[in-house]
Write a structure and sequence with these properties.
alpha/beta; Rossmann fold; 2 domains; five-stranded parallel beta sheet; two-stranded antiparallel sheet; 12 helices; binds BIS(adenosine)-5'-pentaphosphate; nucleotide-binding; chloroplast; Adenyl_kin_sub
Length: 310
């Protein structure tokens, strides 16, 4: 559960004693929720038997507070952890743009990380490019560490992550399992092969905004954008066929690791319709997660009441 959880509680006036005019409305992290006798002594005004009264008061107050506790502050659920998978050009990147905009998740694309490495001209980048040009998977020793490091960065841990194009093999999935990194949902985009080829050939990218376009399905908004669009070096019909073969060779093994988490979507539909389906699934997962987190707060309060009463 998030550290931002806080409790708001107002004990009934009887719990504070006749001389009390205090009203409590504390907001404290659960870890700080403990009471000291001095804080309760301060509500006494007669000054008699301060210590004894304070102790008795503390006991009745504790249980009254615990019993009348209402959780009014929002319980911030654990952030979402989502994987998105599908054949080349099935629309992973396009859906990630929409998911990121609505849910604020950190988009981690294995392909983008690799293209950045290629662009920086490192040894790893050169090796990556050789494999990418052949439509093959880049070796694990380059990809796995790159993705792991990115996933563990604070922004992804705090805001949640959206992992695109990873894992693509059993060994990559196992590398995450070994770190106990598992998604809440594994989205699988299902698109027919003919549509995939048409999408790859017509795809264009805006190097300024990084937005993904398609000459037919998502044309650029104006001439200025159209004139600066670029094409990926592996976006040819010949190369996408190789990428598809690689995808088919590996996909079943990856799905076997996440079989209880798979949400399969018909990716042939227009991108807005695909997103509507994904959005529905993500909202349910979020709802479920906040339900689980609220339940653990209530359980925590029940134990608190027990320990205070004893
Ligand atoms: P990567 O960059 O991940 O490529 P990919 O998996 O082939 O997927 P794409 O990025 O081509 O497509 P997409 O599904 O994101 O579709 P998009 O939204 O752009 O990987 C490239 C290479 O890097 C790999 O081949 C491999 O060599 C290497 N690599 C990557 N990850 C690796 C890993 N984990 N391990 C080892 N090697 C790895 O859409 C495509 C087009 O369709 C766009 O023009 C878009 O506008 C259009 N479109 C999208 N949705 C729709 C829709 N619903 N209707 C109509 N058009 C649509």
């Amino acid at each position: 559960m998030s550290l931002l959880t806080s409790l708001s509680y107002s004990p009934p006036p009887s719990a504070l004693g006749p001389s009390s005019s205090s009203s409590f409305n504390h907001h404290k992290p659960i870890s700080d929720l403990h009471y000291s006798s001095s804080s309760y002594s301060s509500v006494r005004t007669d000054g008699r038997s301060r210590r004894r009264l304070s102790t008795r008061f503390r006991r009745s107050h504790h249980s009254a507070v615990a019993r009348s506790t209402t959780i009014t502050a929002a319980v911030k659920p654990e952030p979402l952890k989502i994987m998105i998978s599908g054949a080349p050009a099935s629309g992973k990147g396009t859906q990630c743009e929409l998911i990121k905009e609505k849910y604020g998740l950190v988009h981690i694309s294995a392909g983008d990380l690799l293209r950045a490495e290629v662009a920086s001209g490192t040894e790893n980048g050169k090796r990556a490019k050789e494999n990418m040009e052949k439509g093959m998977l880049v070796p694990d020793e380059i990809v796995v560490m790159m993705v792991k490091e990115r996933l563990l960065q604070p922004d992804a841990q705090e805001n949640g992550w959206l992992l695109d194009g990873y894992p693509r093999s059993l060994s990559q999935a196992k590398a995450l399992e070994d770190l106990h990194i598992r998604p809440d949902l594994f989205i699988l985009l299902d698109v027919s092969e003919d549509a995939l080829i048409e999408r790859v050939v017509g795809r264009r990218l805006d190097p300024v905004t990084e937005k993904i376009y398609h000459l037919k399905y998502s044309p650029p908004e104006n001439e200025e954008i159209a004139s600066r669009l670029t094409q990926r070096f592996d976006d040819t019909e010949e190369k996408v066929k190789l990428r598809l073969q690689t995808h088919h060779r590996n996909v079943e093994a990856v799905l076997s690791v996440y079989k209880d988490l798979i949400f399969k979507v018909d990716g042939n539909a227009p991108k807005e319709n695909v997103f509507t389906e994904i959005d529905g699934a993500l909202s349910s997962v979020l709802e479920q997660k906040s339900g689980t987190d609220s339940a653990s707060v209530v359980t925590g309060m029940a134990s608190l009441e027990t320990s205070l009463d004893s």
